[in-house]
């Protein structure tokens, strides 16, 4: 059920979008986009004028073409929105098809009762056993089970869900693979994660975000200004004609005035604004993140500070063997061989890493341990050691104090060099494992939680973007400082408590910064609720999921970095296309205004002085106006792929991004229309349409 990317140019999707584009001509739909709404009103006015001309027998090809292209402008704008919504609806359809009717085993007064999952209410308790589909989102209150969550995460590996910990949350639609759990339902019917995902990807019920609303107000304001300009232009034209003694020299007919108005208002960004927002949410959904607030998606693009948990985010989360430190008079190879023998039956990540390190450093391979005389000693919480017995050899590895007690009991010693190595590793944030053979201590294996590959470079990218990273860890300050230096974070919080996290976020916000953090436990809930962008892990507790404004279904703490990039790309796309749209108006001005006033102050049948503004040397006033209107319509369709895909993301500071986008989209928006309008003018003349 994980939403996959849907190709924008599928024939079925295009057909669906084309039909929806016509449905969106409903005034109640158009009213949601004021810029396109007034464009449609202009098209209606010109259409009424054209109908009157038909009955009067005076309809010209120019008026007919203007009428058609004005309607194309409206349709192309509604098509852009319909295409963005259609892609989400196609993903939602696949989710709905995959969701089958589920029944629940409701636990009521100690007895089980089979009911439809849709009849469950918040607070109900259900039982789920092997092969059962979990009927609704909830929290495990009893038992432990292996759960297949591939339906929502795409990951085939099962996960453990148990009561009383930070991995107690379960999602409706996932399947129990083994054992038995009792789940308390945490949502009302229709309010689960899958339902919310379907609603989000459909896009139709998406609420406009604050940034989108603010930009909409700007576009409406510009539209009102240009409406006033075009409404007063006929009076100015008549005044100029009277002074020049040239009545009728300025063409202020209804098709021309509406064309000027539609070309000057920001129709390009007005037509693409909704598609940009929907596509931003779509990119987030495809990365398996549910945003419970549109404001959070935008805030992610303006984040100043990132708070990241150390374990599993900055580090791998599993300790890895990094070094063999032999005792005096013991070779490193002997220590590695003994440590490898003691770890061959150890299936933990730590044990496997010891085997791998010994192979890599000394080319040691499995030897005689497969023979019957090898007896492996498993690790227990009491002995805190594991190992292997081979005839007259007993090899043990484990915690320093326990191995020391084991060797001493056999009459052996404990070299001070080994004790010093153990202390040094512990202070550096690592985990020392002492290895002994019979009564002889062979040395120490250093384990440490390894910093993820490439994470330092990711943090460097964030720093170039002006984002500061803060590592949160329960380690002591010395260990935290060492890992922070290796990872390349800007700051760290050692021995972190919920109160310390919350205070740090509030302090950053008091200085005007936007803060993002990730968490999964109940103790993270206060900080997640306080953060501007709080990303809760789906595997976390219900308290954490309710406190955050985003939920990562993959439960990958590093996803926070991707969320920030998506938020920035959304803002960049919106800003870039707004810049392009506004810059477009300059070329349209130089196309239409000279065409309207070319006959004013003209002498001997030649064009007047205002014709000098015809910088593009367009063929005629009619071809100039028509070319501008056609370009205004076609540019919306031309920019639809960019609006859906998003402007290419670059990890640069805000000022550098602003300069870059002003150059590309500002200068591009200024130059492209001059070229486009001229080419359309040549084409119209070539086919005798102007």
Description of the structure:
The chain has 23 helices and 20 strands. It is 52% helix and 18% strand. Strands 1, 2, 3, 4, 5, 6 and 7 form a 7-stranded antiparallel beta sheet that branches. A 7-stranded mixed beta sheet has the order 8-20-19-18-9-16-17, sandwiched between helices. It is an alpha+beta fold. α3 crosses α4 (61-98), α12 (332-343) runs antiparallel to α13 (349-362) and α22 (621-645) packs across α23 (654-686). 47% of the residues are buried. The longest helix is centred in the last third of the chain and has 39 residues, at 559-597.
| Number of DSSP E strands | 20
Mean pLDDT: 83
Radius of gyration (Å): 34 Å
- Measured as a percent range, the helix fraction is 40-55%
Give the number of helices.
23
Mind describing the biggest β-sheet?
7 strands, antiparallel
Overall body shape:
elongated
Low-confidence stretches at least 5 residues in length (pLDDT < 50)? Answer: 368-372
Strand content: 15-25%
Structural class by helix and strand composition: alpha+beta
Distance between the termini: 54 Å
């Amino acid at each position: 059920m994980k939403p996959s990317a849907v190709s924008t140019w599928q024939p079925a999707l295009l057909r669906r979008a084309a039909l929806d584009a016509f449905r969106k001509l409903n005034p109640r739909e158009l009213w949601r986009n004021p810029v396109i709404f007034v464009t449609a009103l202009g098209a209606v006015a010109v259409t009424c004028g054209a109908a009157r001309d038909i009955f009067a027998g005076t309809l010209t090809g120019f008026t007919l073409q203007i009428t058609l292209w004005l309607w194309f402008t409206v349709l192309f704008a509604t098509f852009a929105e319909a295409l963005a919504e259609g892609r989400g609806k196609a993903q939602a359809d696949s989710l709905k098809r995959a969701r089958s009717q589920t029944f629940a085993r409701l636990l009521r007064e100690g007895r089980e009762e089979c009911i439809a999952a849709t009849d469950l209410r918040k607070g109900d308790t259900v039982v789920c056993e092997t092969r059962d589909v979990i009927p609704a989102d909830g929290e495990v209150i009893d038992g432990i089970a292996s759960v297949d969550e591939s339906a929502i995460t795409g990951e085939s590996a099962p996960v453990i869900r148990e009561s009383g910990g930070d991995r107690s949350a379960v999602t409706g639609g996932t399947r129990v693979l083994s054992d038995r759990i009792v789940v308390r339902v945490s949502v009302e019917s229709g309010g689960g994660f899958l339902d919310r995902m379907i609603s989000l990807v459909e896009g139709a019920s998406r609420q406009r975000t604050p940034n989108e609303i603010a930009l909409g107000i700007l576009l409406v304001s510009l539209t009102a200004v240009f409406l006033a300009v075009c409404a007063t232009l006929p009076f100015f034209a008549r005044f100029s004609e009277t002074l020049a003694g040239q009545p009728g020299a300025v063409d202020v007919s209804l098709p021309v005035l509406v064309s000027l108005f539609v070309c000057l208002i920001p129709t390009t960004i007005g037509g693409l604004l909704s598609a940009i927002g929907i596509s931003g949410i779509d990119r987030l959904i495809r990365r398996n993140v549910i945003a419970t607030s549109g404001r959070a998606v935008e805030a992610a693009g303006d984040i100043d500070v990132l708070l990241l948990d150390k374990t599993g985010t900055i580090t791998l989360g599993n300790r890895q063997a990094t070094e063999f430190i032999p005792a005096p008079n013991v070779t490193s190879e002997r220590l590695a061989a003994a440590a490898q023998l003691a770890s061959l039956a150890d299936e933990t990540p730590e044990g496997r890493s010891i085997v791998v390190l010994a192979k890599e450093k000394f080319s040691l391979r499995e030897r005689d341990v497969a023979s019957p005389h090898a007896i492996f000693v498993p690790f227990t919480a009491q002995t805190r050691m594991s190992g292997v017995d081979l005839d007259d050899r007993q090899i043990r590895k484990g915690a320093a104090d326990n191995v020391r007690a084991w060797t001493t009991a056999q009459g052996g010693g404990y070299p001070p060099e080994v004790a010093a190595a153990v202390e040094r590793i512990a202070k550096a944030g690592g985990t020392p494992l002492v290895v002994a053979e019979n009564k002889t201590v062979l040395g120490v294996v250093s384990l440490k939680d390894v910093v993820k590959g490439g994470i330092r470079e990711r943090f460097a990218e964030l720093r170039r973007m002006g984002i500061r990273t803060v590592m949160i860890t329960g380690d002591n300050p010395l260990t935290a400082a060492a890992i922070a230096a290796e990872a390349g974070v800007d700051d760290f919080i050692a021995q972190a408590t919920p109160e310390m996290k919350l205070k740090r976020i509030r302090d950053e916000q008091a200085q005007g910064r936007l803060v993002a953090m990730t968490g999964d436990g109940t103790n993270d809930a206060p900080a997640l609720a306080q953060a501007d962008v709080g990303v809760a892990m789906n595997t976390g507790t219900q308290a954490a999921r309710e406190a955050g404004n985003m939920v990562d279904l993959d439960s990958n703490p590093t996803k926070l970095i991707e969320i920030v990039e998506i938020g920035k790309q959304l803002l960049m796309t919106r800003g870039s296309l707004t810049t392009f749209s506004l810059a477009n108006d300059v070329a349209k001005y130089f196309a239409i205004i000279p065409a309207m006033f070319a006959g004013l102050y003209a002498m001997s049948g030649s064009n007047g002085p205002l014709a000098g503004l015809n910088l593009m040397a367009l063929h005629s006033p009619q071809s100039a106006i028509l070319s501008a209107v056609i370009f205004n319509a076609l540019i919306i369709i031309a920019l639809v792929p960019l609006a859906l895909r998003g402007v290419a993301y670059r990890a640069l500071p805000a000022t550098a991004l602003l300069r870059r986008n002003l150059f590309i989209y500002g200068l591009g928006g200024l130059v492209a229309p001059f070229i486009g309008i001229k080419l359309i003018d040549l084409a119209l003349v070539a086919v005798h349409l102007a």
